[in-house]
Automatic annotation (TrEMBL):
Catalytic reactions on record: L-tyrosyl-[protein] + ATP = O-phospho-L-tyrosyl-[protein] + ADP + H(+)
Keyword Membrane annotated: yes
Transmembrane segments: 20-42
Stated name of the protein: non-specific protein-tyrosine kinase
Record keywords: ATP-binding, Cell inner membrane, Cell membrane, Coiled coil, Kinase, Membrane, Nucleotide-binding, Transferase, Transmembrane, Transmembrane helix, Tyrosine-protein kinase
Domain Polysaccharide chain length determinant N-terminal: 14-106
Coiled-coil zones: 406-455
Gene3D superfamilies recorded: P-loop containing nucleotide triphosphate hydrolases
Family: Belongs to the CpsD/CapB family.
Keyword Kinase belongs to the record: yes
A GO cellular component annotation in the UniProt record: plasma membrane
């Protein structure tokens, strides 16, 4: 026996990577179809899904003060630094009040729509007109109003309430909704552009912005401000760098122009509001100073008049040298006492504010308007307190009180408050000492003043009052000027660095490249999973290598797919590849006949696991190939339960082996010649009720012995051993046994029984023949021939057992899906 017929156990533990690769590549059509379908679906989704774009703008948040003012006396004085400003801006940009201002300024509650391929598309910025609402009048709420262009200056407005006359009207001046009953559910009327349209249910003007194209149709929809604002509060605010107070504002939407206008508008309104907030203190301070300035001006005029009258009435116009010295010293002390007194008043107000408030912000904390902060530590600590308080309020909006970072902020705020109160107490103590010292010094000079003549004492008193009033008047006048300058020259702390531009919008959804990549992956993975599952569930024999690696019985040969109309492949197509494969088997089988003498008859028995594996076709063609080689051959059909041979030789199955075994006919009477030279055939005949018993009687044994004397080759076609035991009983007559396996049909466990008998040496001189072999680019091996499928297990035993039923299509599907045991 040649080496390629031996069992190759060495490969049992190895993974056949090449074989698996060939199996996968064999499904290239499935991969191609799957990928094409996936890409088609991806292309459809890329077009069908609503496109969303993202735009961004960059702003700087940095406190800007007029350099003309000193730090302590700046009218636009502002506690806190850039970090505080940044956190405040974050909160403002996401606040409802701010976004309401933006929506209202842009009239974004007006939707401009146009019919698209899949939906109504937002065409804001693309329409040849805009709507100018009369916000004091009611408007049709949340209903599509069709705008059809009829001419260059004429449009038709129409809407349909769908069989209902009840609708809602919205008044944007107070943002209220009211019910309204229409006379008819439909409305349609023509209007002239740029003219006021006045109806009970909408009041606006259509302003032409571009040339009209007659026939175009648009839709407008008036939504509520609340609903619109809710959709724009998702502006993302991110820090660009940790060091600089620069923020990036980004927003997503379906209309690039709408996103651009909204981002730019939100920054402009923020810039304006921040500037107004910044100069609010200056405005209030100026009003406060101006009131004092008017009173001080009146007081100064009154004192000046009293001073003139006193000088005239008392005939004294100049102070003596001693009086002038006392006057000069007391004036400076009076001014110093005034400043200390005001500082004490401010510190007391600041202390009371800290003790009575839990939230601290720039707008509410007391700011020194007319004095200079004595200790810079207070300014630093107040700035930190405002910053930490702002951070705490931002954090409180999203976490609970027991959140560790929030508790840490509370502790830091308590520490800052205590430090600030300690510094204030220290300053109050210092100022109290200063006031006591100043009062003692002023009392000393007042005592010296009392030694002067009465007229001079009165003149010093009037001069002191006048001088103090003049100093206060000039100081207030200077502060009023500073406040006015701060109002006029102040700038916002928010500056736009890079405005949003619709040309720079990026598509965020859907992402065609990503979707195509996912489609490509799914188009590859799904078939791959299908192949893996199919391979896991597949328990069929596919290649000769599988037989060699898993069974002890050697492979005698491979027969390709028979595409001729009958089973007489060798006789009818002697030059075909199928015929050649039988000739190769004829050569290889001589090794199985090594124990038989050359001039003796050789008996070949053919069997299989189940019906449908091509056992009869192999029997006929093996008999034919021996006969055509000049050997006298007889083919015996001992498959008594399901005879087939007679049909291929155009014979009637009325007389055969069964008739001889029951002694109705002689052996010569059942032997029939065929059209194949040197080939006789003995068909099975009528199906008997006891086929096993007939094959086991002495007549069957005598018949085979008699045939072995008459012929060179006796070919026996037996029943499948996987279904009945008849074939095993006939093995004793055979010099060689061919066990037929069919590609993609025979299950891997079917040959275990015969293989075990071979290992136990109960059966010898047996080999496998792989039938109906074809590669079809699926497994990487074979010749490209075929043979029709037969029956199966369950279906395989059809005709061998009683009361069998044909499987329905549902059972076949379940059988295919269900893993085989």
């Amino acid at each position: 026996m040649n080496n390629n017929m031996k069992l190759h156990n060495s490969g049992q533990g190895n993974v056949d990577v090449k074989g698996y690769l060939f199996k996968v590549l064999a499904y290239w059509k499935l991969f191609l179809i799957s990928i094409v379908i996936a890409l088609i679906v991806a292309k459809f989704l890329n077009g069908y899904k609503q496109k969303r774009y993202s735009l961004s703008t960059t702003i700087s948040v940095k406190e800007e003060n007029n350099p003309l003012f000193s730090t302590g006396t700046n009218i636009a004085f502002n506690w806190g630094g850039a970090s505080d400003q940044v956190e405040t801006v974050r909160v403002i940009l996401k606040s409802r009040s701010h976004n309401e201002k933006v929506v209202d300024s842009l009239n974004f509650f007006i939707e401009y729509l146009k019919e698209g391929r899949y939906r109504l598309n937002d065409v804001y910025g693309e329409t040849p007109f805009i709507i100018e609402l009369n916000k004091e009048k009611p408007q049709l709420f949340n209903k599509l109003i069709e705008v059809e262009i009829l001419a260059k200056d004429r449009v038709k407005l129409s809407f349909d309430l769908e069989n209902s006359t009840s609708t809602k009207l919205i008044n944007y001046s107070n943002n209220t909704l009211n019910n309204y009953e229409m006379e008819s559910p439909n409305f349609s009327k023509e209007y002239i552009v740029d003219e006021n349209i006045v109806t009970p249910f909408f009041n606006f003007k259509i302003i032409k912005t571009k040339n009209f194209i007659v026939g175009e149709k648009y839709f407008i929809n008036l939504k509520s401000i609340d609903a619109t604002v809710g959709g724009y509060r998702n502006v993302r605010v991110n820090s660009i760098t940790k060091a600089a107070s620069m923020l990036s504002l980004s927003l997503e939407g379906t209309n690039k122009k709408r996103i651009e206008d909204y981002l730019n508008a939100t920054v402009k309104i923020l810039e304006k509001d921040k500037r107004e907030q910044k100069i609010l203190y200056a405005r209030n301070t100026k009003n406060y100073i101006d009131k004092f300035l008017l009173r001080e001006e009146d007081s100064l005029k009154k004192i000046e008049k009293e001073l003139g009258n006193y000088k005239q009435n008392n005939n004294i116009y100049d102070l003596s040298i001693e009086g002038a010295q006392i006057y000069e010293k007391t004036i400076s002390l009076d001014e110093e006492r005034r400043l200390v007194t005001e500082s004490v008043g401010y510190l007391n107000n600041l202390r009371n504010y800290i003790l009575t408030h839990n939230k601290y912000n720039q707008e509410s904390i007391p700011v020194p308007a007319l004095i200079e902060v004595q200790d810079t530590k207070i300014s630093i600590e107040i700035g930190k307190l405002v910053q930490r308080s702002t951070e705490r309020e931002v954090l409180r909006n999203s976490v609970r009180e027991n959140y560790p970072p929030l508790q840490k902020l509370n502790s830091e705020i308590d520490i800052l408050k205590n430090n600030l109160l300690e510094n204030i107490a220290t300053l109050l103590s210092i100022n109290k000492g200063k006031l006591n010292s100043l009062n003692r010094r002023i009392a000393k000079y007042n005592k010296e003043l009392s030694k002067l003549p009465k007229r001079e004492q009165g003149l010093v008193k009037f001069e002191r009052n006048y001088q103090l009033s003049e100093i206060n008047y000039n100081y207030l006048k200077q502060k009023s000027y500073e406040a006015g300058t701060a109002i006029a020259a102040n700038v916002s702390d928010v500056k736009i660095i890079d405005p949003a531009r619709s040309t720079e919008a990026s598509l965020t959804y859907p992402k065609p490249g990503f979707n195509n990549l996912v489609a490509l992956m799914l188009g590859t993975i799904i078939p791959l999973f299908y192949i893996i599952i199919r391979e896991v569930l597949d328990n069929k024999i596919h290649t000769a290598e599988e037989i060699q690696h898993n069974y002890a019985i050697p492979v005698l040969g491979v027969v390709g797919r028979n595409r001729s109309k009958s089973n007489l492949a060798v006789f009818e197509s002697p030059k075909s590849s199928v015929a050649e494969s039988f000739r190769a088997i004829r050569s290889n089988i001589q090794f199985l006949f090594k124990n038989t003498k050359a001039d003796e008859c050789k008996t070949l028995l053919l069997t299989s696991s189940v019906s449908g594996e091509g056992k009869t076709m192999i029997s006929i063609n093996m008999a034919t190939v021996f006969a055509l080689s000049g050997k006298k051959t007889v083919l015996i059909g001992l498959d008594l339960r399901k005879p087939k041979i007679y049909g291929d030789f155009d014979l009637a199955n009325d007389v055969g082996v069964v008739n001889h075994l029951i002694n109705q006919k002689t052996l010569d009477e059942i032997i029939k010649p065929t059209k194949v030279p040197n080939l006789d055939v003995i068909i099975s005949g009528p199906i008997p009720p006891n086929p096993s018993e007939l094959l086991l009687n002495k007549t069957a044994s005598d018949m085979i012995l008699e045939l072995q004397k008459k012929y060179d080759y006796v070919i026996i076609d037996t029943p499948p051993v996987g279904l009945v035991s008849d074939a095993l009983e006939l093995f004793k007559y055979a010099d060689a046994i061919i066990y037929v396996i069919r590609q993609n049909y025979t299950e891997k466990g079917m040959m275990k029984m015969i293989d075990d008998k071979y290992k136990n040496k109960e059966v010898t001189n047996i080999s496998y023949v792989l039938n109906d072999f074809s590669i079809k680019n699926k497994y990487g091996y074979g010749y490209g021939y075929g043979y029709g499928y037969g029956y199966g297990y369950g279906k395989y035993g059809y005709g061998y057992h009683e009361n069998e039923e044909t499987e329905g299509i549902f059972s076949k599907i379940i059988s295919f899906i269900k893993p085989k045991s």
